[in-house]
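Appendix B. One record, verbatim.
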Amino acid sequence: MENATKALLIAAGVLIGMIILSMGVYLFSGISSYMSETQEIIENNAINKFNTQFFNYQTEENEELSFQDVITVANIAYDNNFENELTGDSYIGDGTTNYVQVTIKGYISPKTGEETSATYESLERVVGDPELLSEWLQYNYSSKYKCNKIDVSTDSKRVYKITFEKI
């Protein structure tokens, strides 16, 4: 009888141990799932915050932006590119990296001083050169623009290219 009591106590101890281990695994699984969902929400919020910086400049039909607004967007793009160490001439806004490209259609060329309908593909690089930026501002300060296209990467869900057009 004494051995049976000890066997029951041992079995009860093992059963309690199994229950405690099962609860631990269940809690770990639940917390792990919660943490991954929370991390995903934080990442989505960061992407939305980043994209909002650019979507704030998306214009309605009759709305116009000053050239200073365009330079502000180019400065945001430049800061992003610099922060991500994407400052070389080989980078373009194609959605495969975090590089953001600012394109402008129609401007007064600082080189010639004449208006052109051409497209300048890398206005974000102008911001990094204070002398060149000063020339661009000098010639284009009174120009009005509209934002006619914002490209968002299907992979990263981040803005990678924003296009302005002179109106």
